[in-house]
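Following up on my earlier thread - several people asked me to post the actual chain instead of describing it. Fair enough. Here it is, all 143 residues.
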Amino acid sequence: MNWNKRFLGVVGCFLCIWSGGASAGASGKPLDGYVCMSLKHEQTYSEWVASGRLPKSPGGPDEPPVYRAPTEGSERIGYQMNLVIAEWPLNKVNGFVRVLWGQKGVPGWIAQDLIVPYHNSAKPNAKCTPLQLESGNISFWIE
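Reply from S.P.:
Thanks for posting it. Predicted structure:
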């Protein structure tokens, strides 16, 4: 087989996959009633761990726990690793904020003083929009 034909075939396959991925990413709709938030600097969480208020999470000090109910004594359903999708206006109870956790959007609660309004240090003017994908999963769009 001619190497030019192979090269063009590989490039063609790459373009098909790439364009399909781009359209799949745009198949969500804005998630009304929710807003993107950012985790505060990891130092705040580290202070909580050092004080004994919270156990150290398995992923490190920058991954605070998400609870099933708005209390530290309730079941931990996971750990928040980056962006937080919070109910808007913020639903605050006992120092916690109601959030959607994980790809499936499991309702949970995260400590209010561990989150701040969304910011992106690499793109200061960036905006974040929570999305619900056609699959039902929760995601976000950064523009």
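The chain has two domains: 1-27, 31-142. That should answer part of your original question.
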